Amino acid sequence: MASNELVAVLHFFALCSCFFGMYYVHLNCSPVLCMVYTGCWFMTSGVANFAGFLSILFSFTDSDPNKARSHYALQYHYLFAWISCIVGYPAFVSSTWMAYYPSVAAHAYVALAVIPLIAWLQRQGDLIIFTTQFVTMFSILSHMYISILSENHWCFAGACVMLLNLILVSTPTRYAVLGFSAREAFLISSTVTSYLLAQGVEQMSVKHKESEDVWFFAILMELGTQLFTMKEEDEGDLD
């Protein structure tokens, strides 16, 4: 396991990567819904890393290291790291689909996040693990597919690293990878993921602006069709 000083540095770089991603979302995403979906990964991951950074600061001031490990800030770090995988990443996948192939079905990945959340509320450990792996893996495979179709190489690389994130978040923290615990390895891989996804946002930006027009005109056409149908029904009733 790495020292607390090194973990604090990892948290700092992870936070910088999340801020970098949010800045790219602010610059490149104009539709509000796409902005929320795209920024969800960076927000949840940022909160997780901020909580982890606080837990390290508390460990420096706590005379008993065992209390520091069980500090509430560290619990929030684990919670939001998990939420970033089951909510933040599927939301980013929905945003990618909305950019290149806008349809109502693109929101399905966000809806899937409800499944592990329900398992978490019911405190069913095995079901939490299974639903987390299912939702995240399904999102990863779909993200790889849409990234290949759209030739967005940054998003494809981010999806590949996200596969490593899923393995690490499912691994108990007592296990080590190349001298790093599963938590510390997840910090490194999530930082790389945030950087890659932020680069992918820039490629998606033009498509997001086009999809905003597509959705706007689609809504107008749907409303016009409904009004025309209602008018014909009223005329038929009068006859």
List the main descriptive attributes of the protein structure presented here.
239 residues, mainly alpha, Rhopdopsin 7-helix transmembrane proteins, two-stranded antiparallel ribbon
In terms of topology, how is this protein built?
Layout: H1 4-28, H2 32-61, H3 65-69, H4 72-100, H5 108-112, H6 114-121, H7 125-150, H8 153-169, E1 176-177, E2 180-181, H9 182-238
Helix pairs in contact: 1-2, 1-9, 2-4, 2-9, 4-7, 4-9, 6-7, 7-8, 8-9
Write up what this structure looks like.
The longest helix is centred in the C-terminal third of the chain and has 57 residues, at 182-238. The termini are far apart. The chain has helices at residues 4-28, 32-61, 65-69, 72-100, 108-112, 114-121, 125-150, 153-169, 182-238; strands at 176-177, 180-181. It has 239 residues and is mainly α. The chain has a two-stranded antiparallel sheet with strand order 1-2. It has 9 helices and 2 strands. It has a single domain (4-206), classed as Rhopdopsin 7-helix transmembrane proteins (Up-down Bundle). Mean pLDDT is 80; it is low at 213-220. Keywords: Membrane, Transmembrane, Transmembrane helix. The chain crosses the membrane at residues 6-25, 32-60, 72-92, 99-121, 127-146, 153-169.
CATH class: Mainly Alpha
Gap between N and C termini, in Å? 82 Å
Task: Count the beta strands.
Answer: 2
The secondary-structure class comes to mainly alpha
Unreliable runs, pLDDT <50, ≥5 residues? 213-220
Q: How much strand?
A: under 5%
Shape: globular
Helix segment tally: 9
- Average pLDDT figure: 80
Helical percentage: over 70%
CATH architecture, by name, is Up-down Bundle
Helix and strand pattern = HHHHHHHHEEH
Oligomer: single chain
Assign the CATH topology: Rhopdopsin 7-helix transmembrane proteins
Q: Profile the largest sheet.
A: 2 strands, antiparallel
What is Rg? 21 Å
Domain count, please report it. 1
Q: What is the topology, as strand order, of the major beta sheet?
A: 1-2
Keywords: Membrane, Transmembrane, Transmembrane helix
